[in-house]
Specification:
The protein has 691 residues and is mainly alpha-helical. Helix content is 63%, strand content 3%. The chain is built from 28 helices and 5 strands.
Length: 691
């Protein structure tokens, strides 16, 4: 009959599930006494509050709040268009860190959360919108909680404040929502039309008008709200088609070009409809989703990847069809729409070899970063990544173009190398920012006297001046300035506390200065690489190629091509180009992630082995855990996170066969077999009933 099943003891299980003790938090934040902060669970939706009540009754307040935090982290990262594979990795680290008995399913739009072996299940429908700032903020909050530098109450309160815009600069608040966002649409449409789609300056001007109109349509429908937003794509497409068609039909050369398509001078002077339409609609194509869908299919997430692939394809067709309908409206239903489309020509060499090409691309990047809601003070990070990825792609393609006129290998290679270069540069920039953040936090909280050297003082003063300059120009936050004031006070208070003749017996701050310290702790966590990489991927992706595929379906036969002429915009040509570009970019991302993960592994084995465990066990453990988490996060950018819930028997067998020496094994440390991951020092023992 088999072994009897041991019933779950709620009391023992609850005791084992308690998170880190308050002593650990005091160790991290040293001698500062913080006032008690409590998250108000009454602000939660009804279903979350009910589930929290059941968990709190069985396992205690902390466990219930950790479930709420995990779910809210997933929802907000998904809403901000964080990479789903990475979000899965973050949730898995929270689950492993606090022994959560929890599973989830992150679909394209619908999220499902289960806790306590499916005893409670919550669903959320979460539409996404690009938001690099929130990707970074919610990622950092999770990392601070996992590292034990804040407690769950502080993490939940900070999440709520971030949602309310309390941690966003005033400039960011202006362009985060309408009507401020309207300034971005014309600039992005104009620059994209020229830099990507062979437009000239007249096309840029018309695209700017179309972009403003498209922004107004989105603004109006967002104000109406509800089901009206379903009409966004078709309305944006129609408005763009109408405006572009009007400029073409009533322009000085458009009608002459239609009457005589062989009139080269007239057709050259007429607007290029494809560059206007593609430049305007480029923001609405969600081409990034197409590449991520391919990446998810490669990594094994077939359901999510295929759904995302199909969804973005249909969305692009709706936009393209809307533009075609708008063009038809201009020509009052006759065949003029097709005639105008076929007669319209673009200057393929307008930007080739021009000194201003790179400057125009950077201008386009600035508008893109505004659309992505990246804080202006952080633009420099993403601009470097975008520029490197673009220039590498551009130069490799031009360098190989003459050798591969009969195939698409030059396109595939340039996209792979460009995407991989973007990943590596983004990782290096994140490493630089992370090291600077670690120094800033250690100096601010006076964690080590080693930071008080001349060089340390100079660098800290440099950071101080940079923060003040950023704030002076209106792109910084008041809390950034307050942190430097707190550092001076903390330094004096610590001196007084160590003086036996001074009456001070503790270090405490007013609430607003406590907020600044917590903001510094969270703000100096490792940055989310995807938040600065995603805009670069967006400008490499084939969103416009999908649109060309659909335009070739709407306008299938070009009567002005000879029988022997090959139509570059035929469906076969466009679709093959689409698959080559999207797949090569996805592979480039994987190669870049794998390369940097391997680099971290090598650094861990060659450098960190020099640290003797017996001499400094605390630093050894912290360094090992940090690099292990770093490697795990990088792996989570392109692979499906391993979890015991998937298949316990095969997972156990895989670990036994691979051992801790495998570079990409589940839960492996970057230090190899001699230094396998052991979380006993910082984590409570796992319950035998934990899934």
């Amino acid at each position: 009959m088999g072994e009897p099943v041991t019933p779950l003891k709620v009391e023992d299980d609850a005791a084992e599930r308690q998170p880190l003790s308050i002593e650990y938090f005091k160790k991290v934040r040293h001698d500062v006494t913080f006032s008690e902060r409590r998250f108000d669970v009454n602000t939660l939706p009804d279903d979350m509050r009910r589930v929290y009540g059941h968990l709190e009754e069985k396992f205690g307040e902390e466990y219930g709040l950790l479930f709420i935090f995990t779910m809210r982290t997933a929802v907000e990262l998904h809403r901000a268009w964080n990479m789903t594979l990475l979000t899965n990795t973050i949730l898995q680290q929270i689950k492993d860190r606090f022994n959560m008995r929890m599973t989830w399913n992150l679909g394209v739009l619908r999220l499902v959360f289960r806790v306590e072996d499916g005893g409670y299940e919550l669903h959320r429908k979460v539409p996404y919108d690009y938001d690099s700032e929130f990707q970074d903020i919610y990622y950092r909050i999770a990392m601070a909680l996992i590292d034990g530098q804040i407690n769950v109450h502080e993490a939940l309160i900070y999440q709520r404040e971030a949602k309310q815009g309390m941690h966003t600069a005033k400039s960011g608040l202006f362009i985060r929502n309408f009507p401020g966002r309207l300034i971005l649409y014309p600039g992005q449409a104009a620059t994209c039309a020229v830099i990507f789609f062979n437009g000239e300056w007249i096309d840029a001007l018309i695209a700017a008008v179309c972009g403003l109109a498209a922004g107004l349509v989105e603004f109006a429908l967002s104000r109406v709200g509800g089901k009206a937003t379903v009409l966004l794509d078709i309305f944006v497409g129609i408005v763009t088609g109408v405006i572009g068609g009007l400029f073409f039909r009533w322009g000085p050369a458009g009608e002459d070009c239609m009457l005589d398509p062989e009139n080269v001078a007239a057709c050259k002077a007429a607007p290029c409809l494809s560059s206007i339409y593609l430049g305007t609609l480029y923001w609405f194509f969600y081409g990034t989703a197409f590449v991520i869908g391919i990446l998810e299919i490669i990594s094994g997430e077939l359901a999510t990847g295929v759904t995302r692939f199909v969804g973005v394809t249909v969305k692009t067709f709706v936009l393209s069809l809307g533009a075609g309908l708008g063009l038809m409206i201009v020509f009052a239903g006759d065949s003029g729409a097709a005639d105008a489309w076929y007669a319209s020509t673009c200057n393929q060499n307008f930007v080739q070899g021009e000194w201003w090409r790179t400057l125009l691309y950077l201008a386009c990047c600035v508008f893109v970063l505004g659309q992505y809601r990246l804080p202006i003070a952080q633009y420099w990070r993403a601009l470097i990544v975008q520029l490197v990825a673009y220039e590498v792609q551009y130069e490799v393609f031009n360098g190989m173009g003459q050798l591969h006129v009969k195939d698409h290998l030059d396109t595939a290679t340039s996209n792979m190398v460009g995407a991989a270069s973007g990943v590596v540069v983004a990782a290096l920039i994140s490493l630089l920012v992370n090291v600077s953040g670690d120094f800033f936090r250690a100096r601010l909280l006076q964690e080590s006297a080693r930071n008080n050297t001349r060089l340390g003082n100079f660098y800290f003063q440099f950071l101080c001046m940079a923060k003040k300059a950023v704030y002076f120009f209106g792109i910084g936050r008041q809390s950034d300035i307050m942190k430097f004031e707190v550092e001076k006070k903390l330094k004096d208070m610590r001196t007084e506390l160590k003086d036996p003749n001074h009456p001070r017996d503790k270090i405490d701050f007013p609430k607003n200065e406590e907020d600044a310290i917590i903001d510094a702790i969270i703000g100096t966590q490792d940055i989310n690489i995807w938040s600065i990489l995603m805009p670069a991927v967006y400008q490499l992706v084939p969103g416009s190629i999908i649109a060309k595929l659909w335009f070739s379906a709407i306008f299938p036969e070009n009567p002005y091509l000879g029988e022997l002429d090959k139509n570059p915009d035929s469906q076969e040509s466009v679709f093959s180009n689409l698959m080559v570009i999207s797949t090569s970019i996805a592979l480039g991302l994987i190669i870049g992630f794998a390369f940097f993960q391997t680099l971290v592994f090598v650094v861990g084995r060659t450098c960190c082995r020099k640290v003797e465990k017996e001499d400094n066990p605390d630093n050894f453990q912290l360094g090992r855990d940090y690099l292990s988490n770093k490697q795990g996060m990088m792996e989570g950018m392109y692979t499906v996170v391993d979890d015991a819930n998937d298949d316990p028997d095969s997972m156990r067998e895989m670990k036994r066969e691979m051992g801790s020496r495998a570079l990409f094994s589940p839960g492996n440390s970057v230090f190899g077999a001699d230094f396998g991951y052991n979380d006993d020092a910082v984590q409570t023992p796992a319950s035998p009933n934990t899934v």
